[in-house]
Amino acid sequence: MSTDVLICGAGRTPFGRSEATGRQLAADAVNAALADAGIGWSRVRAAFGGSDSAGLADTLVSRLGLTGVPFVNVKNGCATGGSALISAVNAIRSGMADVVLAVGFDKHPRGAFDPRPEDWGLGAEYGSDGLMVTTQFFGMKIQRYMHDHGITPRTLALVAEKAYRNGALTPEAWRRKPLSAEEILGSGMVSDPLTRFMFCSPGAGAAALVLCSPEAARTLGGAPVTLRSAALRTRRFGSFEVFSPSIPAGEPTSVSRDASAAAFEEAGLGPRDVDVCQLQDTESGAEVMHLAECGFCEDGEQERLVASGATGIGGSLPVNTDGGCIANGEPIGASGLRQVYEIVQQLRGRAGDRQVPDRPRVGFTHVYGAPGVSACTVLSR
Amino acid sequence: MAAEPRSPAAGLQGSRCSGCAVTAYPAEGACPRCGGSADPVALRGTGTLWTWTVQRYAPKSPPYQAPPGGFVPFALGYVELAEGVRVAAVLDIDDVADIRIGMPLTVTAGPGVPRARPTAPGEEGS
Predict the structure, then answer these.
(1) Residue ranges of B 93-122 with Cβ closer than 8 A to chain A
(2) Nearest-CA residue of chain B relative to A194?
(3) From CA A160, how far away is CA A177, in angstroms rounded?
């Protein structure tokens, strides 16, 4: 039997390059979320958080206050924020605490990530011969998808064009200058068929949420949003993931498909009920494929959907209304909670210039990352 | 760019699960699907291109070691072998404009990662 969990506070920092440390950014996001909920740090009864490469979340207590609160570090790659969120949900449902913090943050150096082959169980030759490059995987996955389902490079450019357009409407976004599809197509090939401006960049940023039991939420007032479900999955056999020396033949399985289906089932809702969504857009092709993997359309339908403007802010299914990873950059630990922050603003009707019209009621978030992990949420007001 | 000569005799050493018949590369002691024991198997190396991309910029070094003449963009992809496994390989194809999904390729093992080149006529059955 599940207890409702309500999001009573949400905060984020600007994303991009920052002089501040990742931990400073995290403290700023936590304080913004606490202020949004109208409570002080001392009211928080449990906390979960983490980063991929910017330090330990539990050390934030020295900035927030040494209240003795149980604070658990989470480190789960691209699902770090989602995992912190799920831990917070479970803390409330189990009766451990009635007011719980989830925080995700990161700060990465410039340029592509540079993983080491030995950390991935691969021989040194995969590094020395130049196959330890994440952008190769993204290029190869969408290359095959375009071949199978008739997606064109122009659609990839239109996805990025929308991201920069939405980023220009989002005060905290990193890339706030609109770019045309032609500029995006002409920005230089990185990993065919993906060009430079179709990719997000590693960066810095933080996001935090205050989650409450229904009883605690009533004492706070404000404008809570209901977290209908949160689901985390790892890959099954047959998935196509980064840094794989081989993959099995046959139709690939999808961890995003598994996690989104679980989130919808737990929420008792389906993709058709969703009014606004946030999908992992590490690059343009990811958004295209995740639309289908998360159940919002059939394979190949994206070619028509994207061209028609359906995924824009005024369209039938607005996607990545804050500009997503492409316009906000990718601080790994923070992205999942940034997505939830954005849906909370949209459902409250507080998203400013990027507000989806007609008072959206149901939102969805999806993160995906290496080595085959996905976390999804369904939210409603 | 001339590739290092590779010995076809060395072959691609994979593994095959005795229980569920899943083939893996490189060879693993356990099946990636069921966890059961897997036996070494030599893969024939002939197949077709499943997907590809081009590495357009020099990867970070280390770990990348550029060839003596300096970095040159190179193609890479997954070659689907008859054994039911897709193997990541550098593609030794002179002009990337010639790359097509489904083209016949032969994968060989050498000192580095697997490399694939267009299958010569009559080579498929060898």
Answers:
(1) 96, 101, 111-113
(2) B53
(3) 12
